[in-house]
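Marked as duplicate of an earlier ticket. Keeping the data here for the record.
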Amino acid sequence: MLTELACYNQDSTHADILEAIFIASEKRIDSVAIPSGFMSRVDEFLKHQKFSAAIDFPYGLSSTQVRVHEIILAIRQGASFIDVVINNSYIKEENWRKIREDIKACLAVCNQNNVELRAIIEYRLFPVKTVLLMCDLLNINGVFNVINSTGFVADDLSENAIISYEMQTKTGVLVTSCVRGFNKKYHDVFKELNIHCLRLMSPKIAEHLL
């Protein structure tokens, strides 16, 4: 199981980003997730650490044109992965056409630059049926890695583990499970379920767990 350390707090400073990078290196964490606006501040670490850039984070409300521009800039600044937040309103409205059009445009830029696009959906806001439908839609349209939360919605570790397993086994996507509170017991549960990646939401959790 891969691990990723996120530094997404709205009041994060450059020092917080550096702390996350150093802990990721010390604990051999596979990648560090940051808002795309921080990419310009980590260029000196690109040779030794992979970074994922969160696009239109955390609400996913911007136009496709704005999102594509943000993706292009993040790729130029060295992002290894692009994490695009899916617009929750489109999901609630079942506007699958708009979601497909947006994903197609974002994916085209990533594919041209050989950078993986990952989709962020807020699984707690929707019925399981809708979450699985979204995963199928993403998979069919070329997005094979889905992050199940922004980390800003109240969550339950057991439910996160269950939905992550269902997303992977029933739709074929790879799931990055995003959780705030965590402990060794649940780390082992996610590992036994063969969840693709675990995103830890704070350096303290990473230090305690790994």
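See parent ticket for discussion. The chain has a mean pLDDT of 95.
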